[in-house]
Amino acid sequence: MADHIKIRPATGTWVVRAAGAVIGESTNALELVEGDYPAVIYFPRTDLAMAFLEPTDMTSKCPFKGEANYFTIEAKSGPIANAAWSYENPIATVAAIKDHIAFYSEKVAVEQV
């Protein structure tokens, strides 16, 4: 793993809410810290209501994690575009985040409860 990336179990229970609705809750989330960036919580797909997440055509590339794929959240109040991302085939050094999805905290609420 790149020296500046640390992945560990996120302690406690974590919830993600979009437009007021809970779309995921997990006691198995991961916390990824990359350099000086704020920690990001990655939720296992099995703990998310995947019916609300629609894959988009957007992708981005990180030299340390691989190619990210994005999701729009289909909320009752309307779509929240590209609000979440995942690394479908992450680089081996960050393989722990495979089958996990992270969310932009500016677009949804990610909270420890």
User: What coarse outline follows from CA principal-axis ratios?
Assistant: globular
Low-confidence stretches: none
* Cα-atom radius of gyration: 13 Å
Query: What helical percentage do the residues reach?
Result: under 10%
| Physical arrangement of strands within the biggest beta sheet | 1-4-5-9-8-7-6
Number of strands: 10
CATH class identity = Mainly Beta
The biggest sheet, with number of strands, parallel, antiparallel or mixed sense and barrel status, is: 7 strands, antiparallel
Question: Structural class given helices, strands, pairing?
Answer: mainly beta
Pfam families: NTP_transf_9 (PF04248)
InterPro entries: DUF427 (IPR007361), DUF427_sf (IPR038694)
